[in-house]
Every structure is written in structure tokens, then in C-alpha cells.
Description:
heterodimer, A: alpha/beta, 2 domains, seven-stranded mixed sheet, five-stranded mixed sheet, globular, B: alpha/beta, Rossmann fold, five-stranded parallel sheet, two-stranded antiparallel sheet, 7% strand, binds thiamine diphosphate
Amino acid sequence: MPPSLSPVRTLSRCLLRPQSPIHPRCQWHPSSIRQASAAAGARLNGTVEFDSTPILQHTSRAALANPELPPDVRNGQTKRINLYTAVNEALRHALQTDERVLVFGEDIQFGGVFRCTMNLAGDFGTDRVFNTPLSEQGLVGFAIGAASEGMKPVAEIQFADYVYPAFDQLVNEAAKRRYMSGSTGYNCGGLVVRMPCGVVGHGALYHSQSPEALFTHIPGLHVVIPRSPLQAKGLLLSAIQSNDPVVFMEPKVLYRAAVEQVPVDAYHLPLDKAEVLKSGKDLTVVSYGTPLYTCAAAISAAEKDFGCSVELIDLRTIYPWDRKTVVDSVKKTGRAMVVHESMMNAGVGAEVAATIQEQAFLRLEAPVKRVTGWATHTGLSFEKFIIPDVTRVYDAIRKTIEY
Amino acid sequence: MPNTMSLRASTRRIHCSKLLHPTTYLHTRQTPKVPVGWRQCRAVASTASAERVLFPGALNSKFTNEMAFIRPSTHKAIPTYRVMDQYGQVINKEVGVDTEDEEALTLYRNMVCLSIMDLLMFEAQRQGRLSFYMMSAGEEGIAVGTASALDPSDVIFCQYRETGVFLQRGFTLDQFMNQLFANKEDLGKGRNMPVHYGSKELNIHTVSSPLATQIPHAAGAAYALKLQNQQQSDKPPRVAVCFFGEGAASEGDFHAALNIAATRQVPSIFICRNNGYAISTPTSDQYRGDGIAARGAGYGIDTLRVDGNDIFAVRRAVKEARRIALENGGKPVLIEMMAYRVGHHSTSDDSFAYRQKVEVEDWKRRDNPITRLRKWLEGRGVWDEDKERELRSSLRKKVLAAFDKAEKMKKPPIASAFEGVYEEITEEQKQHIEELRDILQRYPKEYDIDQHEGGIESLSQLLEKK
Ligand SMILES: Cc1ncc(C[n+]2csc(CCOP(=O)(O)OP(=O)(O)O)c2C)c(N)n1
Ligand SMILES: [Mg+2]
């Protein structure tokens, strides 16, 4: 087809031929679009390669070398899977091994709009895996009630952007249940509220948000954001096991894009530990979720260009968070930076920076830098200017090192 | 806890004094049109042998010694109003269709235009030229019909599958395409996902993705209109109209909206498009009552169920609803428009993962708002195959011309990323803009800023703006 063919003619012709087959059963195709948004001559932006990024375990050996895995799992097998499959496997294991586990939410019965609950209703029956009516406050309140009577409900919110109707239930009920119930013993441990979050390239105002900071303000909730399939499986199983309610946010751009070797057996990862992904001497970069990939690419370019050595930390659990790992790292490097997608104002970065300032002030050689979304909404056409990219992280590393 | 105690006691005192001197009695003149029954609700039954006690919560309820649970499952389903059958035959010739041939032709052309735009945009999305799209297939009559039966000054709130409302009100093909491509002419300044149209000029509020949030907005807007109708009696009265899906009607906002609309007696028409699905969720997982119409009575709201494939029924229902809504200063009306979602939920959805293809094919064959009106037009002798072919070909050309123009246009200025959060840019935003500009200037190869109107200059202008 000659490239000059006018769009009018191309489209007209499509109408004449039969409807092209529908795409695979999938709601979003983020990774391709995301890559396409980088400028043609870019050297930094668009350099996140999911096939080779150090954030993912590309070999079975590397995956099993993880010291957080129990010995029997480390002697077992791995399988190359993406993040939604890892979530699915965790849910499947939980349903299989504990009859108290329930999985429900909007549209989850056919597999969910991101395919995380594929085949679960068929395999475990619709008493335990079912569609709810379209009401977030209703389904989260329902989950709190079920958890308070001894079940382990894993409720799905279709997009983190739509969790707000359930905000009251999460903040006023789930988070305060144990405290307000005093010695009665009531609590809603076992409750997990899962939700896809983050930008995908074209989600605009209401399919892009990362509202973790709204929940980290609330003692009583654990807020967890996994960075990869291996992490997602182990952290989700721990969330379901936990005796406290957990808000579990899944970066939806990673559902398909992040593929790695994941142990076939079930395992639990700690909900109270950050993880040092790469050690370094000159600067500590603290992040979680999708921006870790951006950070890894930026760090690799910066280390090459500036001859520095950068430490990268994944918070994993954003609240209550592992302050010691972060502070110890900054005491060693003397410089720190926090990177996240959501806005800077009153964000997780503010909390991390303040804590570093309080606990490692005398070791700081530069102000703690925040590389985050700007104080605005994620307008469709502007996402690439708003969300931290490799260039911004790279430049911030340089400025912090050179400060 | 002595403090709490005294607080409680004083609250009680306030309650008592209110009961003794209800404010409604003191200010009867300022609060007109309160139905008499409601004012009496604080009274107590006079004698023990009275047939009904005026419990404040259920007026006029008679006593009974027969224990009879209400069993909705034994009730007959609410009937579905139609004017013509699926063959385009008018059922009651005396009542007729209330529509001149010329107007019917315009409605038909608009419905066809909508379906052609849908097909083309669906395909454009498949080709990767558009990030997203939502079709109206099967529901064209509801949107076009409703909009045609309202006054252009009536205020409308949409969910997202009401492109026909915009079309009927005069949103141009260029305006649609500019929004879909989020270009510099887009009224939404390139900020929203495709199909999130809005137009103050046409009195249609901008579509917002969170479901059901627009329903209480409509109640509040209708209350504003109610007061304005009273205050500006020289102007023709207006109503607020709100569209939503049967799925969205499960949200708390739906219930809150209908209740507050009823208690404030606002001139509003709530239009539920019941198309059988909320993405994959069938109505059987969504509710167990008799659709959405059955809820109207629960809120004391006049309600009608309508065949959404019958554009004449839609129009008559909405005209009558508008009359009712403006009666005595205002009251809400609920209409449930029955339909079947023929298309996928959106371009992100493959509905054959959860429903049979034959189910969809059956529906397409059985009934459709466009073919039904076409049959009627042909019956009137004002439409034929040649006209149909000509219309489709000319509409296709028009849509594609607008498409072509819009796709080539630049994106909105980068400044639009920051403007509009507040009326004025904040000091913090200014710093963010400066930081962004600095990055864009020092790393020019990393960004395609020339796609955006004004390039980097728009940020500088924003910073200079006083
Ligand atoms: C608060 C909220 N929850 C979930 C969603 C995701 N969502 C978008 S459309 C949709 C289904 C809506 O169904 P319905 O109201 O019946 O409208 P239809 O699509 O059938 O026209 C869902 C669940 C959303 N947009 N907002
Ligand atoms: Mg629906």
C-alpha cells in the first residue's frame, strides 16, 4: 500500500470489506502505544525495554535466587508469565487452598476487563467468584461485612479511578474496624481491595490515576503496589493472608508488558519490606510500580554518562512503609530522590522526603528531589509531558549528583 | 463523660421546641405548593378506632390484619410503550406518530449519520488511528428521538452512549472529529478520552467517565432551573434531562439523585437506557426487580417504560414527560428506554467473550430503530432504495472529509495541560511549568513538541500571563 494513500480512501475501503476480526480478548493495548509516543530522535525516552530491563527476572535461575522465597520454592520450577496471569495464579491458589476466599467485582465473572480473573468462576463456581452490581461502595462495603464474619474477600475495583464511591467504606470502616471494635474482636482482616492503576498512554483523566497517597494517609490500611509478576503473586498472597485490610494497586500498563519467570509454587513476600533492587554509592532513588522501569533506564544512562553509582529501592508496600531500608540507604549515599506517577502535592514523595530529612539530615548533601506528576490532571494529549519519563529522571539524577 | 451528656440533652431540647412550633406552620406563605398531606404528617391519629394512622413515614396507609408480603416476582412486568410495531406500522392510527414527514426524514438522516460515523470510527480505532471509541448501535433512536422532543434550551447530562443527542442538537461532524482526535479545535482542549463530548452552546454538559455522577448533577441543575423558571417568568421554562445506563443505575448516585429530585420536586427527566448489558454484566447480575422503571414508584416519581427501538414512542414519551416535569413548578419523571446493545461495549471490548454471536445477530435481525423508521418512511412513500444509497454515500463522504481534516490538525498547546485546573495558574503550577519548559529546552530531541500548537512558546506565554 503506498504510504501516500489518503486516509479517506483507506477508511472507505474498510467499510467495503467485511469487519476485520476483533483484537484478542483484551481491553487495552498499552505497551505499543506507549512506545510510539517517544520522539523519533530520542535517546532517553522510549528506552524502557521490557525484554531486557533489570527490573524483571528473565531467567529461571535469577528468579529462584530471590532470598525472600522459601527453600522449597527455590528448588522448584518457574514459568514465564505476565502480571495479569500472576494475579490470576495467586487468586487461583488462594481459592484452592482456603474456602474462605471469595473473588468478586464488576465484570469479573467472564475474566475481568484486564483478564485477571480468567476461568476462576468456571473452576470455583459462582458462589465464590461472581459479578457484583455496578456499585463500588456497595461491593467494598459487602466485602467488609464478609470479612468481618470470617471470610477472605478479594474485591476488584475495575479502575483505581473508580474507587472513590468506596472511599467512605475504606477510610471510615475498613481502616477503623479493628480500632473501633475495641475488645470485641471484630476486624476485617482478610479483606483485599484490588484495583488497576496508573497511566497507559491514552487513559486521560479517568483511566490513569494512582490514588495511593489518598490511602497512605489512612492508618489501618496496607497499601501495596507490585512492580512485576513475581512480586504480584507473592505480595497478593500475603495480602490475602494478612489480618489487616489491604489496598492492592496493580499498575495496569504492566499487566501484559511485564513478563518474567515466576515460581510455579505458591509463596508469600513480606508486606513490610522495601527491596533494594540495585545497590549504589552516590544516590538513592526510591520508587514503586511502573516508574521503577523508567528509573532503571535512566540510571543506566546516567551511570554511563556521569560515572555515578545509583541505588534503586522499590517500596512495594507504600504504607506502612519500610523506613529503615530507605533511611539506611540514604545514610550511605547522602543523596535521595523519589519518583512516582501521581502528583507531587501531598504525595508519597512528600512523606518519604520528610522522613529522610528527619532521620538522615546530617548525611544529606543535596535536597531530596521529587520527580512526579505535576499539579494537574492527566489530560489525554499531555500525558507524556506530565508523567515522569526517562529524561526527567535522568536529569534529576544529574542535578542531584552535581548539587 | 459529662460533656457528651449535656450535649445530648440540649439536642433533645431543640427537637422538642421544633415539634411544638414546626417551622412549616410559621412560614406557610414562603413555602407554597407543599402537598397538604405532608404538612399534616406530624399530627397523631385522633382515635384508636381510626382506619389509618398518620405515621409520619407512610401517609394514608390503612391498617390490615391480613399479613401480605409484597412479592414483586408475582407482579406483572411494567408494560413497554410503543407507537409503531417492528414492521413500521402505526398501532393506533388515531393517535398517529405526532411527527411530520419532513421531521421524520431529518431524524432518519441523523440516525443513519450516527451509525455511519460509528462504523468508520470503530474501524479507524482498529487501524490504530484513534485510541478509543464507543458505538451507539441499537440505541440511535433513544438519543436522537429524545433530543428532538426537547427544547434546545433544556439542559442535558449524558453518560457516553448518547452521541445522537449531540448530533440532533447540532454538534457538527467537525466538532465530533476534533474531539475524537483531541486536536487544537477540540472544545475539551484535548484533555478527555474520545466520545467525551460537551457543548455549552448546545446546553449539554461534558461527558465524564465515572458512572452515575451526572445523575445528582442533573437533579441539582434542575433545581437551579426550577428557581430560574420562577424568577424569570418572561422566559420559557426549562427542564434538565439526564441519561444513564441500567448498569450505572446500580450506583449510589442514582438512588441519591432520584430521591433528592423527588423531595425538591425538580423539573427533570431521568432517562435510563436499558440495553441489557453493563460491559459484560447482564441485567440478571445487575438487579432483580422489574428493570429500572420499577424503582420510580419507590421514590414517588412518575415513570414510563418505552420501546427504545420506536423513535415515535420515544418522542411522545419525552414530550409528555416534559409537560409533567413542568407541572406545578416542577417534578421529576423517570423513563426507562428498552434497547439491546448491538455493538461491543467499546473498542476495548470483545463482547463475544461473554455473549453468543447468534444472540447479537438475532437482535440485529429482529429489530432496530433505524430499520423500523425506514419501514415507516417507505410505507409513507417518502423513502426508497435510491434515496438510501445516495444518503449513505454522501454521509460517508462528509464524515471522512471531517475525519481527514481533524486528523491532520495539530494538538492543543502544551499549556492546556496546566490551565483550567483552577481559574488561574497557581504558584506551584508555575514552578512545575518552568521545570517542564526547562527540560523541553535542554532535551529537545526527546520530545515531539511541534505536534502541539505553539510548541514550547505556549508554556512561556502561560508563565508571562499576569
Ligand atoms: C464509577 C465507575 N465504575 C466503573 C466504571 C467502568 N465502566 C465503564 S462503562 C461500564 C458499564 C456501564 O454500563 P451501563 O450503565 O449499562 O451503560 P452502557 O455501557 O450499557 O451504555 C463500567 C462498569 C466507570 N466508568 N465508573
Ligand atoms: Mg447498559
